[in-house]
Every structure is written in C-alpha cells, then in structure tokens.
Design brief:
Two copies of one chain form a homodimer. By secondary structure, chain A is α+β, with helices and mostly antiparallel strands. Chain A has two domains: 74 residues, Glutaredoxin; 108 residues, Glutathione S-transferase Yfyf (Class Pi), Chain A, domain 2, CATH 1.20.1050.10. Chain A is 48% helix and 7% strand. Chain A is globular and about 50 Å long. The interface between A and B is large, with 39 and 39 residues.
Amino acid sequence: MKLYITLYSPYARMARIMLAEKGLESATETIIARTREIGSPYYKINPSGRVPYLVRDDGVGMEDSQLICSYLDHCKGSPKFMIPQGNAGWELWRLEALGRTMVEGASVWIRELLRREEERSPTIIDHEQRRLQRLADTWEEEIDNPLMHGQINMVQITLACALQLEIWNPEFEWRKGHPLLVEWLNTISDRSSLSTTEPPGPLSK
Amino acid sequence: MKLYITLYSPYARMARIMLAEKGLESATETIIARTREIGSPYYKINPSGRVPYLVRDDGVGMEDSQLICSYLDHCKGSPKFMIPQGNAGWELWRLEALGRTMVEGASVWIRELLRREEERSPTIIDHEQRRLQRLADTWEEEIDNPLMHGQINMVQITLACALQLEIWNPEFEWRKGHPLLVEWLNTISDRSSLSTTEPPGPLSK
C-alpha cells in the first residue's frame, strides 16, 4: 500500500498513528505529497489534493482519515478500533466527533496563520480561539469518561492529535485552567505511535 | 429531539434530508442556530458552535453530520443507510469520502466569499476552483457506479448537497463538460427530501 501524507496534517497523522498501532509500517510506503501547488503531480494520484490518501494493494485510492484508519485496522490481525454497535458505539462516536471538531478548529487557525499577513482575518482567528477555549473547557469535563482511559481508541488518538497542534501553533494555549487535560496528555503522549509522529516544531509564518 | 441547523450549511442539510427520509420531522424540533457571533447563546448548547447538532431525547448532544445521520437512521424503523460490512462497505465509504471532499472544497470557497473583500485570498479561491474542477472530472467517471443509482444512500445525498452548492455560489460552475453528472442531478433533485431542503438562493457577499 502507499500512504500519502504531509508532515503537518493532523489528519494524515491519525493514519500514520494507525500504521504504527497495527504494525503496518513495513507493508506501506509512506510518501510526502506536494499539496497546494498548482499543477502538482499529486493531483493525478488524488484529484482532491488532500491528505491522507491511501492507495490500496488493488490500486484503488481512498481519502478521509476515518475511512483510512478503519481500513488499516482491518488489514492485519483482528480489528481493534471498530465502533461497537449500540449505546457504547454512539458514545464513542460522539466523543470522536468532539475531538475532531477541535482538530478542525485548530487547523482553520493554522491555515489562517499560513496566509499572507494582509489576507489574514483577525475576526476568524478570534473566532477559532474562542471556539477552542470552549472546547478545552468541555473536554476538561469529559476527560474522566472511561473511554478516554484504558485501551487505545480513535477518540484518544483524535484528541491527542488536536491538543498537540500546540506544537505547530504555540499560541494555541489550551493548558491553563485545564489540569486534567494536561495530565491526560502527559500520560498518553509517551506512547510510541504518538511520540514518533509528533509535529517537529512551530510552523514558520 | 432538537436539531440545530443553519439554512446555508450543506452538512446541516444532510441531517435535514435524513429527517425527511426517515419521517422524523414531527418528532424533531428544528432550530436555526446563531453561529459565528461572539457570545451567542448557542455556544451554551454546543460549545463548538458548529451545525448540525442533535440534542437527543435523553439530553445528550452530538455533532458531526455522519454521526447524526446514522443516529437518526436508527431512531425509527429499521436502519436503511448503514455502511455494510466487507467490500461493498469500503466502496460505499470511499465514494462518500469523495463526495464529502467536494462539499468541503465548495464550502471553503463560500466561506472565502463571505469574508471582507480585503481579507479574501485569490490564491485560495483559485486553489478551490481547480480542486472542484478535478473532482467534477472524477465524478463524471464514477457516476456510472451502481451505488449512485437505485436505492438512496449517503453517497447520493452527499454528492447532491455538494453539486447544489452552485445555488449558493453561482461561480461554482461544474456543469460544463460533465453531462453525466448533470443528468444524474436532474434525476435525483426532484426527490422530496432534496427539493424541500434546497438552498434558497445565492449568498449575498
């Protein structure tokens, strides 16, 4: 298989974490895609130009981090990351969506910082900052949920990817007033699949 | 149940379509949320401020259109929109992701048009236009897939919501050179769940 990524995409990171969790690194060629470039050869591979993108062994390509993670989970051994049927499933999915909305907010902010200064919107940056503070408050209350502890799952992976966007964007200061979240991230961030895929450092603006 | 929406969100539209498909309109109060306003009371209900957001009968709230659609599908009668196990499931999900990436691209473009003129980025608008043209080319080839015809499913709903964003943004001209897509949309757009949730007209910039 071939997995197309960029090093700064939190969504691509989820797929990279899944490769590590499932021991699929050697079965998969990981390729850094040239995104957001006019005429990039990558658009012949994935017309949307987004990452992650998985080209399966049968040649079919798929995007969407949730789909790719689920597919990889089924590629080797028994699936460990499936959403169960019934109430436990709705609860897991509800929390995954709550983690994903934090990834999305932090990503909008980062994309804004990557624009030319005169094309940035202070209103949008302020909007995303406020959104992320409210979400950190919500997660401080939710983090006691048993699904956030014990066996790793997509919610834990998603929330860790969200919070660690502070490495790209040091202005994303979610720690203050959220001691339980800080403690939770400390506990999980040493896990090998997370530490080996950590963002390398602040984005240059 | 209470479903929070805005009239211009394609993601909220998917949830409204599902209410209609499942005959759940009278069991659900649909409420227009005040999003993107500092201090909106809506943030006390959904801290992310996004739509759609479903508050279930047990008081628990959930965001994410895929989750909400799946939950609504299970609320009444037997589920009709589930992703099946195995190869048919991967194919359905792959196409759903391909539709969703088109919704996302068209939405980024519309959000750009809603910014103050001096804060818009011609580079980003050009990027999204090119992305959408490539995706329309891809869909012109995929539209023969049996999953795009016959019994309604989430892929068909998603692609229709993507293409009909032309109503909000008349500059989203995907029709030229894509006769099969035009024909496909003509066939599906009369369906009651789609026609009653159509965007009311072009966005004012």
